Amino acid sequence: MKKIEIINNESTKSEIVIDYDLTKNIYDYLDENKKYFLITNTTLAKLYPDIISKFEKEKVIVIKDGEKYKNFETYNFIMNELLKNKIERKDAVIALGGGVVGDLAGFCASSILRGVELIQIPTTLLAMCDSSIGGKTGYNTKYGKNLIGSFYKAKKVLIDLKFLNTLNDYELKCGMGEVLKYAFIENSCKSEEKYDLMEFLSENSSSSIKEKMNYIVSACASLKVNVVKLDEKESGLRKVLNFGHTFAHPIESLTGYNLISHGQAVAYGIKMASKLACANNLIDNGYYERINLLIDKFHLADEKLEFNKNQLNDFISLMTQDKKVQDGKINLLLPVGYAQVGLFDSIDLPSIEALLP
Ligand code: NAD
Ligand code: GLY
Q1: Do 170-355 and 2-167 have the same topology in CATH?
Q2: pLDDT per position as a tens digit, 300-336
Q3: Alpha helices (H) in 63-196, listed in sequence order
Q4: Which residues have a catalytic role annotated?
Q5: Ligand 2 centroid to 152 CA: how many Å?
Q6: Is the CB of 265 under 6 A from ligand 2?
Q7: What pLDDT, in 10s, does the model give residues 101-147?
Q8: Domain boundaries, the chain
Q9: What is the fold, at CATH topology level, of the domain defined by 2-167?
Q10: 153, 76, 140, 70: which is closest to 108 by C-alpha?
Q11: Residue to mutate, 100, 163, 249, 262, ligand 1, most ligand atoms under 8 Å from C-beta
Q12: Is the CB of 166 under 6 A from ligand 1?
């Protein structure tokens, strides 16, 4: 078991617990005297009835599964269910699911009765390593993703590695894209604890997948905790968590959002950012090859992406529409050294166009 204690300020403490099968005795981590409202989705409700049944039936709220349901209607549905079942300020909301359930339930917890306690139980690799930590909550609108939301940290993040057993290959790859991102930014996260995720992921060790996942999730979670501790509202350091994402968003949009997962798009984005960095002598050929080899080892960017001329124009305009663009300049994170990235705003558009497939 790994525990990461987070001291947000003098009065609020929170913790992340990582273990295999910790939800078997979930009440070891909860307060018997508190009322808990569990929010999950139809897929998890079917897969994990043993966990759901530990909560009072009328306090279990099941939403439809899918990113397209991360919207105002689902938010409104959850809020009404919470109110109908008489949630009080001293009660708590538990999010059992991937990033969609976590972001939505998190926003409900932050806004119901002006805020009740939130507990995240992430069930995807992406949610364990990234979305359940750091307090970003919200839902999508027709104007873009995650445009309505809040920063609201969970009191506890309970990571049960057992959930990874039922994840399909597509979702595992989605999580692995974010894991590799942490490997390539580790030295920019200013963490005192060193994991050398790049080396760990490159090794062909004989340890079991459970042990490997324990190490990987612990490393990513504590790197993220460290970044968020230093820059909660993304005014500086937290931007490193977007490595690969400025390229990933147009890739996802131009491939129709379902051909390749978000994590794979991040991996393609990291490859593009690295190519640009190498062409601008920010990294040498050897390191560029190393990044590519690691992404290829996990088969995250095996297909050759091909875009026609119109799509290439769209690619650039989608990159410039990204909400991380400031003053009309593309802010790009590029690798600058071993597991290190830097933020650049002076990269000219023709050099970006030249590297697009
Ligand atoms: P998701 O929540 O849609 O889950 C992916 C699929 O896996 C769903 O069909 C889900 O039902 C299923 N699933 C979940 N756990 C499972 C399990 N243990 N076994 C089998 N199936 C399971 O997707 P995601 O990748 O977890 O999260 C993506 C969302 O996270 C996006 O909406 C994104 O905006 C958000 N996100 C938020 C942050 C943040 O900091 N808040 C960071 C990154 C991403
Ligand atoms: N996933 C990016 C962030 O939490 O800031």
Answers
A1: no
A2: 999 888 888 888 888 888 887 655 555 656 779 999 9
A3: 72-84, 99-111, 125-126, 169-185
A4: 114, 136, 178, 224, 234, 238, 242, 245, 249, 262
A5: 13
A6: no
A7: 999 999 999 999 999 999 999 999 999 999 999 999 999 998 888 99
A8: 2-167, 170-355
A9: Rossmann fold (3.40.50)
A10: 76
A11: 100
A12: yes
